[in-house]
Amino acid sequence: MFRERLDEAGLLRICWPESLGGQAKSPIFEYIMRQELQEVGLEPRVGVTIMSAVIDKFGTPEQKDEFLQGLLSREIRTCAGYSEPRGGSDLAALETRAVRDGEDWVINGQKIYTTGAERADFMWCLARTDPDAPKHQGISIFMVDMKSPGVTVRPLYTMGSYLTAEVFLDDVRVPHRRLIGEENRGWYLNTLALDFERINMGSYGAYKRYLDAMIAFARETELFGKPLAQDPAVRLRLAELIVDLETLRHLSNKCAWLVSEDQNSTMIASMAKVWSTEFYYRMTNFATQMMGPFGQLQKGSKWAMLDGEAELGYRNTPPPRFGGGGSEIQRDIIATRGLGLPRSR
């Protein structure tokens, strides 16, 4: 119903291709809409996805007919088969293999931290198709039907509310028509996909809503007959957090602008990723401290403050810090690709 109302208001398809009834506007419009939705607690995952962007630009006419409408409307649910147990954040080190067999490809390997795999219809799967090529080459992208024989999904439970999964691919046959783009060019196509992911780097709207609730709590809650907001230590920490939040907004806005202008956003995106995830940790950590023992109570508890959001938010902070490339990886990208510093030997 929510998506239908967005569509009626002319917002859902604002950045969709004109061939699918969209307005084909700059990605910056979608970025602004997502920020506004986040700030009022609504679902921000609307519009163009990293997968639909690549298929629209590099897919065959048959692939566009099969996937685009469903991906943009979210009728087709997907997961991203990126990380692997031995590769970690080094995506180019993937070992999942795809071998051509007539009109099919046979895929063998394992993916890990594949969020949404348990409910996905297809996996956007990166696999090595030329083992003799340099590691950034010889990689291809496949749309793998998650109902195919040989696909096994096993849930991985985190300490927070995140549910992710590992996926085993044992002699999974994928039709050649579901090879996305050119064979062995998957790394370069996926870079475009990541540009669309970067445009929404940093959940400024959601974090602002959370911090606003913390500030309201400090104003309304008394300790020893005085509002918490009168405590110098509380005021100092809240002031630091609002500065951090506005820094995140600047990084996110600049990243979105660079992507919309087809400029290199790699360094700013990595900066936004580090700042966003580590700010989330600092904010939720202070929320639990400010509320004392009550900040450790879970949602549903009679005495939980802010309905347990402090405790839940704090437990949810680890996965974002390593998902999509850990903070150490991001800092290395900033140093090497952004500042041009030499790699360590």
Automatic annotation (TrEMBL):
Its cofactor is FAD. The keyword Oxidoreductase applies. Pfam families: Acyl-CoA_dh_1 (PF00441), Acyl-CoA_dh_M (PF02770), Acyl-CoA_dh_N (PF02771). Residues 184-337 form the Acyl-CoA dehydrogenase/oxidase C-terminal domain. Residues 4-75 form the Acyl-CoA dehydrogenase/oxidase N-terminal domain. Gene3D superfamilies: Acyl-CoA dehydrogenase/oxidase, N-terminal domain (1.10.540.10), Butyryl-CoA Dehydrogenase, subunit A, domain 2 (2.40.110.10), Butyryl-CoA Dehydrogenase, subunit A, domain 3 (1.20.140.10). One of its GO terms (molecular function) is oxidoreductase activity, acting on the CH-CH group of donors. Residues 79-172 form the Acyl-CoA oxidase/dehydrogenase middle domain. GO terms for cellular component: plasma membrane. Coiled coil: none annotated. Keywords: FAD, Flavoprotein, Oxidoreductase. InterPro entries: Acyl-CoA_Oxase/DH_mid-dom, Acyl-CoA_Oxase/DH_mid-dom_sf, AcylCo_DH-like_C, AcylCo_DH/oxidase_C, AcylCoA_DH/ox_N, AcylCoA_DH/ox_N_sf, AcylCoA_DH/oxidase_NM_dom_sf, Mycobact_Acyl-CoA_DH. Belongs to the acyl-CoA dehydrogenase family. This is Acyl-CoA dehydrogenase-like. It comes from Sphingobium indicum BiD32.
